[in-house]
Amino acid sequence: MADTTPKVAITIAIITVVGVIGAALIQKSCPSTPTTTTSVPAAPVSKPEPENKKQEIPPVDLPLRVTAEPIHIEFTGRPILNRGKGCGCGAGDIAFQGGPYSVAVNKEFIFRYDGAGVCRGQGFDRFRGSINWGGFSTQMANNTRNDEYPGIAGSLKVTFSKPGDYNVVTEFSLDCIDFGSANCRNTCRASGTTEVHVR
């Protein structure tokens, strides 16, 4: 019987070569698709608020406070025009020595107003006056001895509690009187405005 071993070995070798070539052709015609990996960021982990954390309180906007203390008049007023007898009204404007004012918050300054010419140097009574400091008002002192304390003219020690620009309005009314030969009474008024800058 003839020996077939060499033929079998050759056949196996041929099959192996054919298989290798076929696998190479398949891989070439169908290249593998690379795998893309997308990383997803992890969600932030919220830390619990501490139980003893203090709650923030917004600052409180306090209302304006103005102090106004009358003092002895310490300035010389304007000359009185048209001085004379009778009850006719004189100058109706109020002037401010040193105004407009620029002052520091809560720092005392001297506020001076002068409406002394309203009665042309004659006497007066029934005085009613006020000063509006820009949202806060005070009454003028009702004093006929205006050479000492506020009346138709005066000085006050003033402080403002808040910075800002304030329009100050002063006004008063009174009766000018002459109990001499004229023997009369007449209601007159005066007013004036100035500014106070508080820094």
Compose a concise summary of this entry:
With 199 residues, the protein is mainly β. Helix content is 13%, strand content 33%.
Description:
This protein has 199 residues and is mostly beta strands. It has a domain at 66-198: Immunoglobulins (Immunoglobulin-like), CATH 2.60.40. It has 1 helix and 8 strands. It has one helix at 5-29; strands spanning 66-71, 101-103, 109-114, 123-132, 137-139, 153-160, 164-178, 184-198. The strands form 2 sheets. A 5-stranded mixed sheet has the order 2-8-7-4-5, with no helix packed on it. The N and C termini lie far apart (128 Å).
Topology overview:
Elements: H1 5-29, E1 66-71, E2 101-103, E3 109-114, E4 123-132, E5 137-139, E6 153-160, E7 164-178, E8 184-198
Parallel strand pairs: 2-8
Antiparallel strand pairs: 1-6, 3-6, 4-5, 4-7, 7-8
The gross shape turns out to be: elongated
Mean pLDDT equals 79
Helix content class: 10-25%
Rg (CA only): 50 Å
Strand content: 25-35%
Largest sheet composition: 5 strands, mixed
Low-confidence runs: 8-13, 22-26
- State the total count of DSSP E strands: 8
Features:
about 200 residues, three-stranded antiparallel β-sheet, elongated, 1 helix, Immunoglobulin-like
